[in-house]
Here is the input.
Amino acid sequence: MARDNRAYMKAYYQANKAALIDASKLYQRHYRKTKPGFLTKLYANMVSRVTGKHGKHHIYLGLPIIPGPEFRAWASSDPAFNQLHDEWAASGYDRRRVPSIDRIDSDGGYTIGNMRFITLSENSRLGNWTQRYGFAD
Here is the structure.
């Protein structure tokens, strides 16, 4: 009986592969916009930077990083994150309004006390200012 079920599932998957993949991608896109999904993706990006799997790894490689569960607990209870996420959702997910982690001390890692939430556009502006003048405003 189990063998028949596996054969059926394999045939079903093969016949509906494109639709199943599309549904999975749609679910992932939606999930990444929820607070838990957003924080999971944000943390994965932070880890990729400090472990050298990011294009600008020379900037981040080896920096300290808070453990994932601790990061999610801290971020979930942070009023700035919650407000920014709510405003981002209300804007229809305008890219400029995405909540973004700003490391207060650019030479420091992703640790409590050195992180705050600001919008992506604010973070980009700070990054450009720092690159140009060597300090944030």
